[in-house]
Write a structure and sequence with these properties.
mainly alpha, two-stranded antiparallel sheet, 2 strands, globular
């Protein structure tokens, strides 16, 4: 386990928190090296091209945010600029990803 007060002044605010995960809850597989090469040698990254039907800049940012945070694409898609937040008096930025209430029809 990493020290809550790591070198460079960074500290892990979650070092005492454990999250219970139910069996079978997350069936996502990690990306392979081949997957990463496919993504980052694509025209989006290697050629700075944006798909017209793929919401333009989302094609660039979604994979990066997903790789950095581990968030699912559905979680990233619901983010607004205001969801990128900073802890008060800290140099710690985070995405505030919250479960949205389900609408009943």
């Amino acid at each position: 386990m990493t020290s809550p007060n790591a070198p460079g002044g960074w500290r892990n605010p979650f070092h005492k928190i454990a999250i219970a995960v139910e069996e079978g809850e997350d069936d996502r597989l990690p990306l392979t090296v081949a997957d990463l090469k496919t993504i980052f040698t694509s025209r989006v990254y290697a050629g700075a091209k944006r798909p017209k039907g793929g919401r333009g800049e989302a094609a660039f940012w979604f994979p990066l945010i997903s790789m950095y945070t581990g968030a699912r694409l559905e979680e990233i898609a619901q983010l607004y600029v205001r969801d990128l937040q900073q802890l008060p008096n800290e140099n710690l930025w985070f995405f505030n990803i919250m479960e949205l209430p389900r609408l009943h029809h």
